[in-house]
Amino acid sequence: MILDNVSKAFGEDWERETVVENLSLTVKRNQLTAIVGPSGCGKSTIVNLLAGFELPDEGTITLDGKPVTGPSKSSLVVFQETALMPWLTTYQNVVFGPELRGDMPKNELKAAADKIIETVGLREFRDKYPLQLSGGMQRRAELARALINQPVVMIMDEPFRGLDAMTRQLMQEFYLRLCEQEARTNVFVTSELEEAIILADSIVVLSNKPTSVREVLQIDLPRPRNLDMLSSPEAYEYKRQAMEILHEEAMKSFKGAGTNSDFLEAYSRRA
Ligand SMILES: Nc1ncnc2c1ncn2[C@@H]1O[C@H](COP(=O)(O)OP(=O)(O)OP(=O)(O)O)[C@@H](O)[C@H]1O
Ligand SMILES: [Mg+2]
Q1: Closest Cα to residue 189, out of 5, 24, 32, 2?
Q2: pLDDT digits (tens, 9 = 90+) for 34-44
Q3: 2-75+151-270, what's its fold?
């Protein structure tokens, strides 16, 4: 996927605000590209643009050379936090989309759904309702819902947000295995640097709003990976680099907000 000089603004007249400005980015095939950036900088806006839910005002977004002109379920799937329908079981949730579209023969769909439910470790919870699942299981069921569409690019917007620390770690480990087993092109938005470092092949660090790419860090940690690698000197160095950029961006937004500069100086010295 290629984003070429993409800009996007919202609002009318004097309220019009540019959120994404001249953003260029290449999402490499069969790699996991993590996107990190200051809170509110426009990460979800970028996700909406990638998925075709929004169209850029300027610039182009292409997937395998073809422009993205609208949402397409089979090629791009956004993994949404709240995608599960509470009145459907795990299995019913997984087959819901393809059944609605009628784009898969029934037998094939059933086999594929059961295989994916197995992959995400929910075989015993196939016929349970979302409320009967733990938080981590719900996320895995959502993952299964996205995977059934066999998306060419899987776009995830902070999929593990809101999980407790332990469950989040388990999900990270689970997702690592999943990515390492099956080649797929992933875009993974997260506000957790360590999550980005352990999962990603490259990390795109965004600037403040109006956002664009500040830096792309290649993450050369070996695969298969595990969470212990986060304590390696290499991982520490990636974290330091990304923190430095994010810190600069945060300082800019403080300045932009007209914050007292003595405070800023004191804060800089402290950091
Ligand atoms: N459809 C829209 N209409 C108007 N403004 C919007 C729309 N979508 C996003 N924005 C604005 O764009 C800005 C960036 O929002 P966005 O949700 O993309 O940021 P984010 O980086 O995902 O934030 P967070 O860290 O909270 O997830 C916000 O100021 C928001 O108000
Ligand atoms: Mg967001």
Answers
A1: 32
A2: 999 998 999 99
A3: Rossmann fold (3.40.50)
Quote the pTM value: 0.90
Instruction: Please report the pLDDT score of residue 83 as a whole number.
Output: 78
Q: Which atom of ligand 1 is nearest to the CA of 37?
A: 21
Of the given ranges (49-58, 174-183, 190-199, 202-211), which has the lowest mean pLDDT? Answer: 174-183
C-alpha dist (Å) from residue 220 to 18, 25, 30, 159, 180: 34, 19, 15, 23, 15
Closest C-alpha to 89, from 46, 52, 44, 138:
138
CA dihedral 6→12→17→21, nearest 10 degrees, is: 10
The per-residue DSSP string of 2-43 comes to EEEEEEEEESSGGG-EEEEEEEEEE--TTSEEEEE-STTSSH
**Which atom number of ligand 1 is nearest to the Cα of residue 42?**
18
Residue 10 beta carbon below 6 angstroms from any ligand 1 atom: yes
Contact between 160 and 195 under an 8 Å Cβ cutoff? The reply is yes
Ligand in nearest proximity to the CA of 19: 1
CA 1, CA 38: separation in Å to the nearest integer? 23
Q: Check residue 72 and give its pLDDT.
A: 83
| Any ligand 1 atom below 6 A from CB of 49 | no
The response to whether residue 43 sits with its C-beta less than 6 Å from ligand 1 reads yes
Q: Residue 78 — very low, low, confident or very high, per pLDDT cuts 50/70/90?
A: confident
Residue nearest to atom 9 of ligand 1 (CA): 45
**Ranges of H-type helices in the chain:** 43-50, 90-101, 106-119, 135-147, 165-181, 193-199, 233-256, 261-270
- In this prediction, residue 269 has a pLDDT band, given cuts at 50, 70 and 90, of low
